[in-house]
From TrEMBL:
The EXPERA domain, residue ranges: 55-197
Similarity section: Belongs to the EBP family.
Highest taxon of the lineage: Eukaryota
Sample GO molecular function, one term: C-8 sterol isomerase activity
InterPro entries the UniProt entry points to: EBP (IPR007905), EXPERA (IPR033118)
PROSITE patterns the record matches: EXPERA (PS51751)
Residues that span the membrane, as ranges: 20-47, 59-79, 112-136, 143-166, 178-198
Record-given protein name: EXPERA domain-containing protein
Membrane topology: Multi-pass membrane protein
Length: 221
């Protein structure tokens, strides 16, 4: 049986057994956005009654959304190497078939992409969930953990974009998918972790300076 033609670039990408997407783009995006908003709503509802600053609640929402995305969505990609062959209309397989229009390295199992996503799903994802607990319980390691997660996410994005550039940056079906999926979808994991890193760095430095001042005062007594 002759393999069906896929919509990805480069056109000579070999995907034996490829099964076309059965869900529409609007349905895939709507389900993802809907489930993401539900997660944010539940986290806000759960911690909304506690005396937390709004920024802390927003951070918990971000880490919940980010962590579950890493574990569920990216985890599926890492451990489902032949998702493009799925003929059951499984949602997660449909997501990656659709996203591959913006970056065909996913369908082609590019080693750099698999490596970055694997580390993100197995390490960064669970760390995000731990960050929620750390923020909620005001743990001493909260800012250090948030900084480590955010730097890890930024590093992953850098590797993701740089390897694409080094390989020619020609993996999107067209400019719409390039800017909406490849740039737009990943841009949040550059912007928000950058802001969190800056905030955590300032918090950690302020705490360190405060400790130095306390020790200095004790010595002068």
């Amino acid at each position: 049986m002759e393999d069906l033609a896929h919509p990805y670039v480069p056109r000579d990408l070999k995907l034996p057994g490829y099964v076309p997407i059965s869900m529409s783009m609007s349905s895939i995006v709507a389900i993802y956005l809907g489930s993401s908003l539900l997660v944010v709503f539940l986290v806000w509802l759960l911690f909304g009654r506690k005396k937390k600053a709004k920024v802390e609640k927003l951070l918990m929402c971000w880490f919940a959304f980010s962590g579950l995305t890493h574990i569920i969505l990216e985890g599926y990609f890492v451990f489902s190497p032949e998702f493009f062959k799925d003929n059951t209309s499984a949602y997660l397989a449909e997501v990656w078939k659709e996203y591959s229009k913006g970056d065909s390295r996913y369908a082609g199992r590019d080693s750099a992409v698999v490596s970055v996503e694997g580390i993100t799903a197995v390490i960064v994802g669970p760390a995000c969930l731990l960050a929620i607990y750390a923020i909620a319980k005001e743990k001493s390691y909260s800012y250090v953990l948030q900084l480590a997660i955010s730097v890890g996410q930024l590093y992953g994005c850098l590797v993701y974009f740089i390897t694409a550039i080094l390989e020619g940056d020609n993996f999107a079906t067209n400019s719409f998918y390039y800017y909406s999926y490849y740039i737009g979808a990943n841009g949040w994991w550059v912007l928000i972790p950058s802001l969190i890193s800056f905030r955590c760095w300032n918090k950690i430095c302020a705490a360190a300076n405060n400790n130095v001042e306390i020790k200095t005062k004790k010595k002068t007594r």
